Amino acid sequence: MNDEKLNSALNAIGKECFISYLEYFVDEQLSNEEIATVIQRERGYTHNSCRSRTSKARSILKSGRLKSALEIIIKTDRTEYQCRQLAQKNLNMLISQKNETTIEKEGQFAKVLSPKAETNRKKSLPTVSTISNHQFTNNIVTNSASIEFPNLSSKVERELTMILGRICHHVHPKLVDYITEINLEYRAEFEDICHKSCNINSFLYKNSDCVFPGFRRPINSEKKGTWKNNVFEKDGTILNDNTFPRHIWAYLSENKAYSGGTSGMWSSSGLSNFELAHIFSHKQDERDFEKNVFRQITDNTEPYGLFTSASNIVLIPKGFAKPTDHMKSVKICFYKRHLELYGNNIIGLSGFDETLVPSWYSEIVWLEPILPHDWKVRINNLLDYRKKYLHKKYQAKRN
User: Fold this and answer.
1) Which of 114, 256, 282, 366 measures 20 to 30 Å from 324, CA to CA?
2) Which band of pLDDT confidence, cut at 50, 70 and 90, is reported for residue 183?
3) Confidence at residue 146, expressed as pLDDT on a 0 to 100 scale
């Protein structure tokens, strides 16, 4: 297995998944089917996906590339710190162990422990009859002086997703289609008024429903002086603190622009009881998980348009938004729901891997999107507001 195939295999398995279940992948007494059953129960992936991950992980071990795999995980900045730390511990053990079984011997599974330690370890391994009760502990490297508390969040991802499906509001597909059509006409006008350094393709790409082209969230180093809602000279974008996406729901709710504070419409309308959640990341360097879910990735253009994409912004009651940010099965379910409602209108992503969708997805009862009777009036007012605002903002910069 060469480096290219190794990287491909790790991406297919998921680096965090590989390191979390390494102790089972290296155990020759456990079959692929048994390991796949554990992963499915704990992660919610389809059984075919779990079998594929297990097979690819064992191919890495058979080809003697465990050490290289650990080094790749350690060097991948986007991988979670805990995962990289665990990989480093295992790599250190491989290097320092004097009487370990040869790692690079082709055609054999890599042995992480010395023969004596391996004998002791197998005495405490779960049997086939009890393996289904395995808890996620990351315990291939153990330390008698520390206690690792299991992360059991994967056990409740199904229940959480069922709840979220019943309380989350998506923009109605008719509104998204209408904005997409208007954007085709608006592109030439925006190109005429925007900053010369602004990459229009990051906002008004194919099937774009971006409501405020030019707007994006800044990184911390860009937050200098009066940065908020002002043009950033370096790339011609307008930096915003996540208030402009609220205009979309403000017009849908009260047919007026967003205003905050206790006296603003966001409070009086009841929208202050909600949070906005972006389903797909609007920054290229935050797309690590999406790259494991979609087979074709185009990363030469920043996906800034998703910051104010009408279909990408979900209205969620306060306190419920975090699972859509960090829980993998939840995120995959919201990806699939997006594709069902709007098709693939996401810049740079295609080839959604259906095998990763949890087997219980069909049980989710999604809240149907609301379509106001005067929706076209409201959307026209929203787009008229954006037209005037962007013209004024960019014209002021030219003058």
Assistant:
1) 256
2) very high
3) 63
Instruction: Give the alpha-carbon dihedral of 68, 55, 16, 75, to 10 degrees.
Output: 20
82 confidence band (pLDDT: 50, 70, 90): confident
Domain ranges of the chain: 3-151, 161-398
Contacts of range 232-241, beta carbons closer than 8 Å, 24 or more positions apart: 233/195, 233/197, 234/197, 235/197, 235/198, 235/199, 236/194, 236/195, 236/196, 236/197, 236/198, 236/199, 237/195, 237/198, 237/304, 238/212, 238/214, 238/393, 239/215, 240/215, 240/216, 240/307, 241/217
Structure confidence by residue, pLDDT tens digits, 314-356: 999 998 888 777 788 999 999 999 999 999 999 999 999 999 9
- CA-to-CA distance for 319 and 48, rounded, in angstroms? 34
Interacting residues of 205 by C-beta distance below 8 A, sequence separation 6+:
301, 305, 347
| 151: its two tokens | 């992360």
Joined tokens for residue 103: 């790692």
| Cβ count near 67 (within 10 Å) | 15
Residue 304 DSSP SS3:
helix
Per-residue CA distances from 389 to 72, 213, 239, 255, 307 (Å): 47, 11, 14, 16, 17
Residue 117 has pLDDT above 50, yes or no: no
Q: Is 50 exceeded by the pLDDT of residue 29? A: yes
SS3 per-residue string spanning 207-228 = CCCECCCCEECCCHHHCCCCCC
Whole-number pLDDT of residue 139: 41
3-state secondary structure of 393: helix
**113 alpha carbon, distance to own chain's centre:** 35
What average pLDDT does range 251-277 have in this prediction? 95
For the stretch 49-65, pLDDT in tens is 899 999 999 999 888 88
Give the Cα separation of 399 and 394 in Å (integer): 9
Helix 173-193 and helix 375-398, axial crossing angle in degrees, nearest 10: 20
Is the pTM higher than 0.70? The answer reads no
